[in-house]
Write a structure and sequence with these properties.
Largest sheet of chain A: 4 strands, antiparallel
Oligomer: homodimer
Helix content of chain A: 40-55%
Number of strands of chain A: 11
Distance between the termini of chain A: 34 Å
Strand content of chain A: 15-25%
Number of helices of chain A: 10
Strand order of the largest sheet of chain A: 1-8-3-6
Structural class of chain A: alpha+beta
CATH topology of the largest domain in chain A: Jelly Rolls
Chain lengths: ~230, ~230
Amino acid sequence: MSLMRIGEKPEIARLPLFRDMDDAMRERVLSGSFLQVFPPQLTLFERGQQADFLHVLVDGLVELYVSGTGRDTTMKIVEPVTSFILAAVMTDLPYLMSARTLTSSRVLLVPAALMREVIRKDTALMQATMHELALGYRDMVRALTDMKLRQSAERLANHLLEFSAQRGNAWDFELSGEKRVLASLLGMTPENLSRAFGTLKEQGVSVNGARVRIEDRAALAAFARPDPVPADR
Amino acid sequence: MSLMRIGEKPEIARLPLFRDMDDAMRERVLSGSFLQVFPPQLTLFERGQQADFLHVLVDGLVELYVSGTGRDTTMKIVEPVTSFILAAVMTDLPYLMSARTLTSSRVLLVPAALMREVIRKDTALMQATMHELALGYRDMVRALTDMKLRQSAERLANHLLEFSAQRGNAWDFELSGEKRVLASLLGMTPENLSRAFGTLKEQGVSVNGARVRIEDRAALAAFARPDPVPADR
DNA sequence: CTGACTGTTTGACCAAGATCAAAAGCGCGC
DNA sequence: GCGCGCTTTTGATCTTGGTCAAACAGTCAG
C-alpha cells in the first residue's frame, strides 16, 4: 500500500463531491484513503466484484467497460479529476462495470465502508453524493437515448461537439485515447468509426491521427441534431 | 386541483423513498402534495420543461419516452407504486424525458421545491433519495449495456425473464401495455418484435395476444445469456 | 351482426453497420 | 535507419434490423 501525501492534491478537496463537507470529516476520509499509481492497461476491478473502494482518478485515463459474451463495450472514459463507481459503493452492491487504466494513472482509493460511514454523518457529503448520482443518472439517460435513436455518424458528430465544448469550444483538439476505444464508447466498430469520420469530412471535420479540426461548427451541429436540452456539466 | 385523502394510501408511506423519514416530515410532504387522476394517453410533462413535481404513480401505467427527430423511444414503463423523475427534481434541472399515461392513472404530485426543502432537513429522506438514485443509475447502466451488446431477440428474451422474475417467476403472464410500446422500450420496431417472438418460439416461448408462456426457462435463459450480476430490485 | 378503426403479423425489400481480409500508417526498440 | 507489431484505414461481402405494403385479428359503436 503505497501511501502518498494526499494533502498535496488540493484538486481532490475541490471536487464537487468533497468540496462542501466538514473539514475534519474530509480529513478523516482522505487520511483513511490512499493514492496509488497504476501502469497502463491494468484492470482496477471487474464487474461482479464487491465494491471495496470509491475511486478518484487524479491523473491519467481510465476506461469503464463491460465485457459480455464475446464482445466488450466501453461505457465511459474517465478523465481526471473525477470520482467513479459511486453508485456501487453507495449501495454496497457489486460493480456493474469493470475498470482498466488506459495510460499510467494515479488513483485515490477511498475504502467503501469508510465512505458510507462518513456519508451517514456528514450531510453536506450526502447531499453532494446525491447530486453526483443524479447527474450520473442523467448522463446515462442521454447515452441511452443517443444509442437508441441516433445513427453512428450522428453519434460521432455529437461526441465531437460535446468534447469540443468541454475544452472551451476549441475548434481544434486531440482525441484522448485510442480510436478503437472511442469506437467502442460510441457503440460501433473501429472500421465504422473510420467511415463515420469519412462522412463527417463532408460536414467540415478534418482528422489527422488524433488531431481533429472542426472547420464548420454550424454544419456539424446541423448534421448532429444535438440534444435540445443542454448538458448538465 | 382535485385533492384526495392521501392518508388512504398507505402504500405511498411504505415506498422505500418515504418509508424511513420522520413522520411529521412525511405528513408535511404529503399534505403539500396532491393526488390527481389522468385519462389514458395524456402527456404529464415534456422533455425540456422545468421539473415542477416529483411524480409518484399510485395506480395505472405511465410511459417515459424521448421523442427525437422523427422517431420516439420509450425509456421506461412505470408501474405502481413507484416514484419517477427524481433526478430532475433533485437537481432542479429540466426533464430529460417526457411522460404520458398509457392507461387511466392516479399520480401523486409532490411540488419539487417542497421535496428539495424537506430533503435538506430530513436525513433519512436524503439517504433514501440517494439510494433510489443509485439504483436508478444502475438500471440505466444495465439498459445501456443491454442495448449495446445484445441483439434484439436476446433483449426480448432477457426482458421476458426479468418480467417473469418480477412476478414471482411466473411461467405464464400477461404483458402490460401494448406490444408497440414494448418494442420501443426494447429498441426495435413492432415488426421486429413480432419476429423476435417468432425466434423465441423455438426456445419454448409461446405467445397468444398479451399472454406469454415460458415453457422451458432453462432454454430461454441459455438463449438470453442473462447478466451475470443479478438485478438490484 | 357488421363495419370501421387500430394494432399485430407476415412478406418482400432495403440500409446501416458488422465482419473479414488486406493494405497503410505509426511508434518503438535495436 | 530498419524492421516488427499494432492500430487505422479501405474494400468487399454478409447480417441484422428497418421500411413499406398488405393481410389479419381484435374491439367497439351502431
